[in-house]
Amino acid sequence: MEFLKLYFIMGSQDCMDRTPEETLALAIEGGITCFQYREKGTRSLGEIEKYELGKKLRELCGKHRIPFIVNDDLPLAIALDADGVHVGQDDENAKYIRETIGPNKILGVSTHTVEEGLQAVRDGADYLGIGPIYPTISKEDTEKQQNLDIFTKFCNTGISLPLVAIGGINSTNGETVMKAGANGLAIISDICRASHIPEHTKLLRRLVDEF
Ligand code: TZP
Ligand code: MG
C-alpha cells in the first residue's frame, strides 16, 4: 500500500504559527501520501469546531486525492465521508468500526504487541500503527517505547498487513525505521514544526521512496 508511506497526522493542537489548513496544504505540496485528522488532547477543539475544520481539511485532501482518515471518531468520519478511520486500543472496537464503515473504507488500528496485531487482523484492519518508536511530544498518554525489532516480530507471526511506524520519527531516524521493516512513517511534529514544510516533506518523501 504505497499510500501509507508518508502518513501525515495533524490536528489544531499540533499547529504553532500556521493554521491547520495552511499546514496541511504545505504538507500536500511536499508530497505526503496520506492524512489523518487527529483532533485530540487538552488543547483540541470542541465538537462543532472540530467538524468545521474537518470539512475544510477533508476537502483539501479530496482535491489532491490524498486519502483522508479520521482518528477515533466514527460519527465524524461518516459525516465527512472520510476514506477511513483509525482507532487505538482504548477507542471504539475495531471490529465494530469495520462492520459499520463496510469493506471499502480504510481501517487502521494502533497495536503494541503481537497479540493486539493478530486481533486487529481478525477485526479487519487494513494496516497497523506501531509505536511509539521514539519519544514523542505529540501525545499525552503514550505507551512504552517499542524496540525496532517489533516489525520483524510482527512479520514472523505471519502478519502481512502494512506496518506504519509512529512516534518521534523524523528525517534523521526515518531511514533506520524503514530499514527495520516499517512499510511507512507516520509523522506529526517533524512536519508541523518544520520551518519550511514543503521542502522538509519532500526530503521525507525521498527517504521513504527509497524503500
Ligand atoms: N501515537 C503514538 S506516538 C504518537 C501517536 C499519535 C504521536 C506522534 O507524533 P510525533 O510528533 O510524530 O512524535
Ligand atoms: Mg486512544
Features:
211 residues; alpha/beta; 9 helices; 39% helix; binds 4-methyl-5-hydroxyethylthiazole phosphate; binds magnesium ion
Detailed description of the structure:
- The model has no long low-confidence stretch (mean pLDDT 97).
- The chain has helices spanning 20-30, 47-63, 74-79, 94-101, 114-123, 150-156, 174-179, 189-192, 197-209, and strands spanning 6-10, 34-37, 68-71, 84-87, 106-111, 127-130, 163-166, 184-187.
- α1 (20-30) packs parallel to α2 (47-63).
- An eight-stranded parallel barrel has the order 1-2-3-4-5-6-7-8, surrounded by five helices.
- The longest helix is centred in the N-terminal third of the chain and has 17 residues, at 47-63.
- It contains nine helices and eight strands.
- It is globular and about 40 Å long.
- The chain starts with 5 loop residues before the first strand and ends with a helix.
- Helix content is 39%, strand content 17%.
- The chain is an alpha/beta fold and 211 residues long.
- β1 (6-10), α1 and β2 (34-37) form a beta-alpha-beta unit.
- Bound molecules: 4-methyl-5-hydroxyethylthiazole phosphate (TZP) and magnesium ion.
- Residues 72, 88, 90-91 line the site of magnesium ion (MG).
Summarize the structure.
This protein is an alpha/beta fold. The protein has nine helices and eight strands.
- What is the C-alpha radius of gyration, as a whole number of Å? 16 Å
**What separation lies between the terminal Cα atoms?**
12 Å
Report the principal-axis shape. Answer: globular
Work out the helicity level: 25-40%
